[in-house]
Amino acid sequence: MTVGFIGLGRMGGNMCRNIVRTTGQAVLAYDLSAEAVQRCVDVGATAATGLAELAAASDVILSSLPTPRDVETVALGPGGIAENARPGTAYFDLTTSSPELARRVAAELDAKGITMLDAPVSGGPAGAEAGTLAVMVGGDAATLERHLDVLESFSGKVVHVGKIGDGLVAKLVNNLLCNAYVAVACEGLMLAAKAGVDLRRLDEVVRASSGDSFAYRFLADRALSGDYTPAFTLDLAYKDVHLALELADQLGVPAPIGADVHDLMRMARGMGMGDLDPTAMMRVYESTMQHEVRVDHDVEVMAERVAREQAV
Known about the structure:
The protein has 16 helices and 9 strands.
């Protein structure tokens, strides 16, 4: 079987390399960046000369792309999957995208005998590299079962959520929750900082109490050190929350908390922080209050904690 992988960025490149290393399948790799392709070739993939070649030669295709528009272009655009993939091809889109778009693309591909499943992932670049991502899948269960080994090569858990688009609904809900937790953690830490509480002690209390969560630790480790080097960018997190709010609007579900998080992210992006980690939302509070949330953690201890949290 030939596996085609489209989109070899921080997430996709790591997933592609895990497929090469663990499945024994032939892998065709494609990206606009020649350097990203070469990193996959170095571990045994073959560089595709173009998207059309990859689509025509692959039995199963995976894509990991930045935006819904990119998914639509790759799947339905000129030289893309719809024009070139053979009937019987399975297509897994790993992008955090729009459920509505996934259903439309799947319907158009189905007319050509191509089965699409949405399979967004969670766990960040560290999880992609370690092969511990969570994968939430929407679409045909039999197609998923046939290609489960490919998904399991980069994941710790694969969940078949339901019909096409349902995997993306699960992913958008997950990301809305995570970013809301990060936003309220910013608020809580600023409240403590302005009250003059020792933030080391506060952090110790929260980690041992009911306020603890992965998202709190994700925020605290970065905010207290002032290091917002991105594991994932604020721009992409903003896109995910935006998609969740679009879904809420389509379904008539009130989402006042999500809207507040979206606005906080918009402010951070307006302050030029789009390419930083999403936890840089803290800087909106720091700018507003003219007060920094910092402690002098030991650099090596902090780096170790950040790496450990990213790997979860």
